[in-house]
């Protein structure tokens, strides 16, 4: 003899209305912002020197007190 089966789950509700079309101006602004952020986060924004490296000498002559 088999144990009784659990009751079946309730049926899901009907889907909501389909999303409406987005204004092309909003879409363009979103794409522009995405491109701007991607360009700012690229490798060019992290390079602090040019192809020639550092052109100035390091300042090592004076002792400093760290944290002051």
How would you describe what is shown here?
The protein has 68 residues and is mostly helical. The protein is 25% helix and 0% strand. It contains 1 helix and no strands. The radius of gyration is 31 Å and the shape is elongated. The termini are far apart. The model has no long low-confidence stretch (mean pLDDT 82).
Helix fraction by DSSP (H/I, runs of at least 4): 25-40%
Main beta-sheet strand count, sense and barrel state: none
> In sequence order, what are the helices and strands, one letter per element?
H
Strand content of the residues, in percent? under 5%
Structural class: mainly alpha
Q: What is the averaged pLDDT score?
A: 82
> In angstroms, what separates the terminal alpha carbons?
83 Å
Unreliable sequence segments: none
Shape: elongated
Number of helices: 1
Quantity of strands, as a count: 0
Rg from Cα? 31 Å
């Amino acid at each position: 003899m088999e144990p009784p089966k659990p009751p079946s789950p309730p049926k899901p509700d009907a889907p909501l209305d389909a999303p409406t079309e987005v204004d092309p101006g909003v879409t363009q602004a979103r794409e522009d912002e995405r491109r701007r952020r991607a360009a700012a986060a690229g490798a060019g924004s992290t390079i602090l020197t040019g192809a020639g490296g550092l052109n100035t000498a390091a300042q090592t002559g004076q002792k400093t007190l760290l944290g002051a």
